[in-house]
Amino acid sequence: MECSEISNLIMKYVDGDISEVERKLLNKHKLSCERCNQEFEMMTEMIKCINELPEVSPPYDFEAKVMGKISKQRVRSSMLNMLIGAVGMLAFAYYMIIFVILPFIQDAGIGQMLLGYGRFALDLIGKYIMNILVYLPITIDNLLILRNIMIKDYMHIMLFIAGAVMIFNLGLIRIINLQRE
Ligand SMILES: [Zn+2]
After folding, report:
1. Cα dihedral sign for 79, 85, 86, 87?
2. What's the gap in Å between 44 CA and the centre of ligand 1?
3. Which of 51, 98, 172, 175 has the fewest C-beta atoms under 10 angstroms from its C-beta?
4. How far is the CA of 39 from the centre of ligand 1 (A)?
5. Is 41 helix (H, G, I), strand (E, B) or coil?
6. Element (H, E) at 73
7. For the packed helices 155-180 and 62-96, what is the interaxial angle rounded to 10 degrees?
8. Do 34 and 74 belong together in one domain?
9. Is residue 98 part of a domain?
C-alpha cells in the first residue's frame, strides 16, 4: 500500500470514520513504515491536545452587558430623533410667524396688533362672519386677494423654507445613521 493512501486512512482514523479492514491495513503499514507511524502519532497527539483544551465561555453577564449597551444607545438615538423633529417643528412655526402671520398682522394695522393676537383673531373671525352674512361677494374677493398674496409672496418662501428644513433633517438623520453603523 502507498504512503499517500495511508495518509488518507490516518485522516479517517482521526475523524472516527475508519472501517475495521482499513484499520488493520493502517496498523500493518505502521509497523513497516516509520514515516507513516510518526505521522499517525503526531495526528493523534494533536487531536488529543485539541480535545483537552478547556471550553471557552464568555463571562456570565456578557450578554446582559451587551444588550444593556445596545438598548441605552437606542434610547439615546430615539431621543435625538425626537429632538430633531421638535426643532424642525419649532423652525416651521417660527417661519410661519415671521413670514405669514406677522406680515398679515402688520398689513391689518398696528392698533389691532396692540389689542393682542387673541382679540385680533376674534375680530377677524367676527368680521369675516359679518362679511359672509352681508358682503358675500366682497368676502370672496378678499379671500381671492389673500390667496393671491399668499401664492405670490409667501408660498414660495414657505416652500423654500419647508424644503430647507426637510433637507436639513434628512441630512441629520443620515449622519446619525452613519454614526450608528
Ligand atoms: Zn508509509
Report:
1. positive
2. 16
3. 51
4. 9
5. helix
6. helix 62-96
7. 170
8. no
9. yes
Distance 76 CA to ligand 1 centre (A): 66
Closest CA to 40 of 17, 14, 19: 14
Confidence of residue 26 (pLDDT cuts 50, 70, 90): very high
CB 75 within 8 A of CB 87: no
In the block, which residue shows the cell 510518526?
38
- Structural domain contains residue 57: no
Residues 71 and 157 in one domain: yes
97 and 46, same structural domain?
A: no
Report, as an integer, the average pLDDT of 153-157: 66
Q: How many CA atoms lie less than 13 Å away from 154 in the CB half-sphere?
A: 15
CA of 123 to the centre of ligand 1 (A): 109
Q: For residue 38, how far is its CA from the centre of ligand 1 (angstroms)?
A: 9
Whole-structure pTM value: 0.32
- Domain span at residue 27 reads 3-52
Q: Using the predicted structure, report yes or no on whether residue 59 has a pLDDT greater than 90.
A: no
Same domain for 28 and 115: no
Q: Find the 70 Cα to ligand 1 centroid distance in Å.
A: 57
